[in-house]
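It is worth pausing here to work through a concrete case rather than discussing structure prediction in the abstract. The textbook approach is simple: state the sequence, then state the predicted structure, then interpret. We follow exactly that order.
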Amino acid sequence: MTTPPTASATGTEAARAPEPPEARGEVSRAIRSRMLGGGGELPAPAEIARCSPYGEDLHLALHLCYELHYRGFAGVPDTLEWDPGLLEARALLEHRFESALRHDCSPLPDVGEALDALLVEPADGTGVPDFLMSRGESWHLREYAALRSVHQLREADPHLWVVPRLLGRAKAAMMAVQYDEYGCGRAERMHSRLYADLMAALDLDPSYGRYTDAAGAELLAASNLMSLFGLHRRLRGALVGHFAVLETTSPPAASRIAAATRRTGAGAAAGRYFDEHVEADAVHEQLVRREVVGGLLDDDPAQAPEVAFGVAATCFLEGRLGSRVVDAWARGESALRTPLGENGR
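Step two, the predicted structure:
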């Protein structure tokens, strides 16, 4: 049995751009073809308008466009990051997605109430962390780690785009939190590196982008939301709201999943990532609420509705993802589009 390389042993492989994932419809096929130098036209506005705003085709297409701003893809020229045709198509995809979110989400009118609501955990305990802690098996942990790897291997990167758009207290506090996310100056302590170590401990391939083809639209939508908010200055408040959700809800969720790694015998390396978030994010939650959110709203009170929208949209998409995963597992089925094979291949 061939064991996947560990994160510490894959410097060249980890830095290599991933292969572009396979298309999931005509829109993503056209965008993928343009990136790889193929012929054909980019999707027309009417074609994008017919896409489901939460569907596989639209979100794979958005993922393809957004990844050009991260590590790109093997065989895709870096110059396409600012290709006018791709940017126009991306704008249409974003409009379809954002419009649906603004229609379907119901933000609490007061930001303080929205943040307070994040501290109230459901009594029924039906989420993914509860499932993993109470009855999860090794294959459930591996599937969840593979799913989340689509964005956890670049964990804090989308949130950094908001830094130039913040002032004073909000900017300083955001950087204080991000300093922790990036390992306090130590590469081996970066949270993305800890996640790669977690994957290797679970016999998964820690290569960046490895499991995108296996991730369904629910995961891609949650991942794309970060990039949508991060890439647009007008959505800076929404990105702060998104960030507040992650930092507030992470400690209890991480505590449950850490317990699951110990119960299933996944090993110390597998639990280290989650243990880190139990400790760090408990401190971050207060800092984000008082200084990042508070500082932003002191400087620009008009951003309050956008912060509330960011909170609501994040919770909405994370809820859809959690329901999809737990429903599949409760039926004894894989939550992936393609179940993991031996060694996570």
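Step three, interpretation. The chain has a mean pLDDT of 91. The longest helix spans residues 268-299.
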